[in-house]
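Lab meeting prep.
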Amino acid sequence: MSGDLLFGVELAVSGLLVGVMYSLVALGFVLIFKSSGIFNFAQGAMTLFAALALVGFLPRLGMGVSILAVLAVMVALAFAVERVVLRPLVARPPLALFMATIGLGFFLEGLAQAIWGTQPKGLDIGIPDTPYVVGGLLLSRLDLAGAAAAGVLVLGLIVFFQKTTLGLGLRAVSDDHEAALSVGIPLGRAWAVTWAIAGVVAVVAGVLWGSRLGVQFSLSLVALKALPVLIIGGIESIPGAILAGLIVGAAERLAGGFIDPLVGGGVKDFSPYLLAMIFLIFRPYGLFGREIIERV
């Protein structure tokens, strides 16, 4: 295998591994939008809050107990958000709910700053950041572990929504709120459970991205990388989020490896958004999004 081809394959594989973690962040948006029609602008802040909580618990509780404690905190946060933020806004315009999530994001960032301070923190999950050498390819251990963890969580979510009674109920709520209410599915409880699941996703994403980038307030901006994933895959599609995350991750790494050296850099950073813009022009509902036709 020639040097350029080997380099390209290495970039593509590492991009696919990172793309799985992009998919994980996007899943938080998809789950909440499917169940309530709310675009949760606070998902990045939830990821940061979960990572900071883990760093705060670690010195006292150890890794295993700390993760369980953070999961409990995020589930409690989900039920508080449903009761305090969402329930008073039932039947309000979608813009009101969207603005509420913006406020929630700033609140969580401010609360995290008040509790744990503003200094960047390291997060060591016990995986050395040294590469495996497979067939001449250098593969990051952190990327492999992150992709494996994200893959297990995604498979668990698919099984949950396809096979369990609660998961099927949440799908019913996402398809038609009024029909779900008519058969006795409580809307508030469904929203709370969905936000709790999104909180669990935020914990896993916070652990993986925090160990990669460090736990700092810019970590909340990783949610911005989920926006091209949502546009490309379709904002209501779990399979779309997975596939689009892989596409974005591979495209970003390949652009950084082959185009950036030719133009002096910068293409890697905007390539996901350029790809999303192309999809908006030619396929605005994404790969798996449902096309909405309004008759007037």
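Slide two material, second protein:
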Amino acid sequence: MKTPQTLLRPARLAPGARVAVVAPSGPVPEERLQAGLDVLRGWDLDPVVAPHVLDRHGTFPYLAGADADRAADLQRAWCDPSVDAVLCARGGYGAQRIAGLLDWEAMRAAGPKVFVGFSDITALHEAFATRLGLVTLHGPMAAGVDFLKNARAQEHLKATLFAPETVTTLTSGGTPLVPGRARGVTLGGCLSLLAAELGTPHARPGARGGLLCLEDVGEETYRLDRYLTQLLRAGWLDGVRGVLLGSWERCEPRDGLRPLLADRLGGLGVPVAEEFGFGHCAGALTVPFGVAAELDADAGTLTLAEPALR
């Protein structure tokens, strides 16, 4: 397996930057989209909505329109030279269905820009890393409930976009599951998506050399066990340098979940830190993937070696 390398950092945003909002996965409520656009305008950004963001699939209501249309929206936004960033409207399900429909050569030729999303968007974080070699932001989405109703989530994303040097240290709210310090390159996302991506042409070959960020939502403990066991059996976790755990919203309470995490991750022989405040939670922090960083599980900090964006 290849060791994760630091990836190309896009340029930070400036006031007046044009940002495209796309819906690669699930359907987007219009009122939430409009509220998110108002937030972005309040940051002095110029948001543009892709043509199919409010679409609904006729057969599969869990999709924001047809696969081809969702893929076309993302590709057009990425290849538009007037667009400085592409923000996902929400997660849900569907990103995996469009990864193979994108013209990755054309997107690479368009050059780097900021990409933001999480949850189901984990599949695209993986693809952007493997196909474009690009740093991406695992962060709140434009029409996400947690983003719209939480000032901390908004402010941390805003700082990451405009002044990334001010948010190079993330602090944990919990005690270490496994103490220690480690250096590596950040990667990860939603645990169930990482397990589902195994063996696909857009997934990383493994987490070797990485600081792996994991979170999930609404999963029974036995399913989380299954995902972690699958990653272990596949050798995907071999050589990982450290693990950061985010939120486990609507999963078993942390006291009940902790024994499973210790059982499945404790044997890796690397630091494992909990409660880093990213994922499906109120006030979710923005975590860049593809940057060198140091995890100090005892101190509960993740310190980036350089800002997420240039």
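Talking points for slide two:
The radius of gyration is 18 Å.
The chain has a mean pLDDT of 96.
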